[in-house]
Input
Amino acid sequence: KAGVTQTPRYLIKTRGQQVTLSCSPISGHRSVSWYQQTPGQGLQFLFEYFSETQRNKGNFPGRFSGRQFSNSRSEMNVSTLELGDSALYLCASSPSGGDVEQFFGPGTRLTVL
Amino acid sequence: GENVEQHPSTLSVQEGDSAVIKCTYSDSASNYFPWYKQELGKRPQLIIDIRSNVGEKKDQRIAVTLNKTAKHFSLHITETQPEDSAVYFCAAGSPYGNKLVFGAGTILRVKS
Output
């Protein structure tokens, strides 16, 4: 099976812009979770989508949003970018819910100038 | 809120020695505890996991122990090798879907 893929891999934006990141899960996986990784804050949970519904949400402002399509592909959107949004954004997929392995994608490196 | 504390933040060991990383979680509802290894520039990869109904699990040189009463779990790597050098993250999983709360990470350096 193909692994989790994310596009684009690298992105440079300026403050105030918005950005959309995409994640394609492993075939058959219905759950997609998003994480932000920074040197200062580590790996932080953003949200999880399962069968097109947001099932869990982390403690991020409303500028961070996401959605999931019927084929389980997921997108996350960040509006009104701030310098502090510069990070590696990782998505992870798993077959269903709870206590099962999450498989991570390679990440999208977002730089906000 | 939910929190996972991980210690130490860095760990240097000699090749062949053992390495131990410890984590403590705050949410007593957590029922899944994975450990991920992340090499520089690469994605996190699961190396071992344990569920709340098990106290210990071993896979070759890697073992994890869980103490639910004390809310802590540990990773043990024996006979360390240079290729074990990486950042290791512990995490606690919610029973209500795939939300992982990660520890801050441990940089493991294995000196040959």
